[in-house]
Specification:
With 89 residues, the chain is an alpha+beta fold. It has one domain. 34% of the residues lie in helices and 13% in strands. It is built from 2 helices and 5 strands; from the N terminus they run βββαββα. A 3-stranded antiparallel sheet has the order 1-2-3, with no helix packed on it. A hairpin with a 4-residue loop joins β2 and β3. The two termini are 21 Å apart.
Length: 89
């Protein structure tokens, strides 16, 4: 599915636009290893049939500012379910 979004990064503003989502896309030379280790731990500890994710935040920041790390494959699954639900409303 990949959100069936439009890549708009070179135009300024959001990089990925779809009906219900707005995203930023970044290609880094190196992603901090701690991010991958955290997500790998979430995958290892995830029971069958559930979607793994990791939640990270800086010490002293509000929990509502925490970030969720999720594979694109699993984000697509959740996004599709969200979009289908919104279309039925």
């Amino acid at each position: 599915m990949r959100l069936e979004g439009q890549r708009t990064g070179i135009l300024g503003g959001e990089d990925i636009r779809s009906k219900y989502f707005s995203g930023e896309a970044k290609l880094w030379k190196r992603v901090p290893k701690s991010i991958f280790r955290t997500y790998d731990q979430a995958k290892r500890n995830c029971p069958a049939g559930k979607i793994p994710f990791a939640c990270i935040k800086e010490k002293g920041r509000w929990d509502k500012n925490a970030l969720v790390i999720l594979s694109l494959e699993h984000f697509d699954i959740l996004a599709r379910a969200y979009e289908e639900r919104k279309e039925r409303q």
